[in-house]
Amino acid sequence: MIENAFIIGVDHHLSSLDKRAALNDLNVTSLKKSLQLKELYVLSTCNRYELYAVAPCAHSAKAAQSQLLQILSSQLGGDVSGAVYQKTGQDMLRHGFQVASSLESMVVGEPQILGQMKKAYQDAKVQGSIGSGLEKFLTTAFHVGKRVRHETCLAKEPVSVASNAVHLLNQKLPGKKNAFILVIGAGEMCSAAVKHLHSFGYQNVLILNRTIQKAWSLAEELGYSAAPIADMLKWLPKAQAVVTCVAAQKPILNENDFQNCQSNLLVVDMAVPRNVAEAVGQLNNVELLDMDSLAQSVALSKEKRAAHVADAQRIIEEEVEAFDRWSSERQNAHMVKHLRASFEAVRQEVLGTGASAEVEAATRLLLNKILHQPTQMIKSGYVPPKGVEMVLGMMFGLRCPRVQFLQMDAASLQKGECPFVDVIRQEGLDQTATH
């Protein structure tokens, strides 16, 4: 795992929308001024607010976490212990990969989160707060999100009313991309439905709305047409499908309005209360889908998505394991460098100047053979990084930046305790370490 990295966040599982919204002002720019962090990434959406950070060392990481909790508490105006989660190590990896795969989303499998993460990543790069650690972590998270999307069926089942409505419409109008579709309304539900129609390739869509400017704004964005809702009965007989959702206390269409309509007309009513009278569903030439039937479809889609979560989790665990291997090699690589540099310095000191080419070649070959097995063990990741540093520091006196503070001094000798004891205990390598 990335050294000294952590996540602090709140999401829709633990906090309200108002609380999450109260954190929007805490961005990379404002937080960098008050926190001693090497790298910082902020993901802020309607469903979550998360800070991904890398600190210079373990002590500064703990200090930054404590400071961030105080900032969040101040921003939210109270104790946040029950609303905030903190993750490090594999838990951080797993959480980040699950977020990118939309397993942590309110609607599991929704595609928007990956785009939101990439946008936040670009913003952080512009601010200069992405280093090698978060770069690797985030690009891997994006890769995991894509794998889950393409290798599982998690995202193939529609889960919103609007998406289900258009999926059902598309199933009942197979191969009719030129079908004339009448959309009545330009609010949130109809806007979503229109965008789904566009994604399915329907070209002949007319949007009716009380406010014609709003209808035209939506229509022009997607290359469709618009008209006043007052012209509804003029266009209804020409339609092969109708999608409606407008605010009305009683139906705006009844059975008499469909007498001259085409046979096999599909009507999708997403409104509550109904826009289309229930009796319309009894007409021979009309198939009516109302909110009851759409709600059943949504529930079924959610069940199908849930069945694919295990496939997504399998991919995530594969990627966590791969990231851990990369991280272990990366953490120990500097020790290989210092070990070889130390032995090379001794070789040069022993040879002095004027050594023959044969002696140079022979001693270099000998050095490589001696260091081959230790190098393989260090790179393998079997030994914790701090354990490697501790052993090499004790055996060879290596003074790389990480182990300089562990050199033996008079105080440790007087205590009769090895200066590496704290590292040993932190790593769980031993319970006692004395001279």
Question: Key features?
Answer:
single chain; six-stranded parallel beta sheet; four-stranded antiparallel beta sheet; elongated
Outline type: elongated
Write down how many β-strands occur, each being a DSSP E stretch of 2 or more residues: 10
Beta-sheet strand percentage? 5-15%
Taking all residues together, what is the mean pLDDT?
A: 84
Low-confidence stretches: 401-409, 419-435
Instruction: Give the SSE order as H and E letters.
Output: EHHEEHEHHHHEHEHEHEEEHHHHHH
Main β sheet profile: 6 strands, parallel
What is the radius of gyration computed over CA atoms, rounded to a whole number of angstroms?
32 Å
Strand order of the largest sheet: 7-6-5-8-9-10
Give the fraction of residues assigned to helices.
40-55%
Estimated structural class:
alpha/beta
Distance between the termini: 33 Å
Total helical segments? 16
Give a description of the structure:
Helices cover 52% and strands 11% of the residues. The protein has helices at residues 17-21, 28-32, 58-76, 89-100, 112-126, 132-151, 161-172, 188-200, 212-222, 232-235, 291-307, 309-351, 357-380, 385-396, 410-415, 421-427; strands at residues 5-11, 39-44, 48-54, 85-87, 181-184, 205-209, 225-228, 241-244, 265-269, 286-289. The protein has a six-stranded parallel sheet. β6, α9 (212-222) and β7 form a beta-alpha-beta unit. α4 (89-100) packs across α12 (309-351). The radius of gyration is 32 Å and the shape is elongated.
Q: Secondary-structure blueprint of this entry?
A:
Elements: E1 5-11, H1 17-21, H2 28-32, E2 39-44, E3 48-54, H3 58-76, E4 85-87, H4 89-100, H5 112-126, H6 132-151, H7 161-172, E5 181-184, H8 188-200, E6 205-209, H9 212-222, E7 225-228, H10 232-235, E8 241-244, E9 265-269, E10 286-289, H11 291-307, H12 309-351, H13 357-380, H14 385-396, H15 410-415, H16 421-427
Parallel strand pairs: 5-6, 5-8, 6-7, 8-9, 9-10
Antiparallel strand pairs: 1-3, 1-4, 2-3
Helix pairs in contact: 4-6, 4-12, 5-6, 6-12, 7-8, 12-13, 12-14
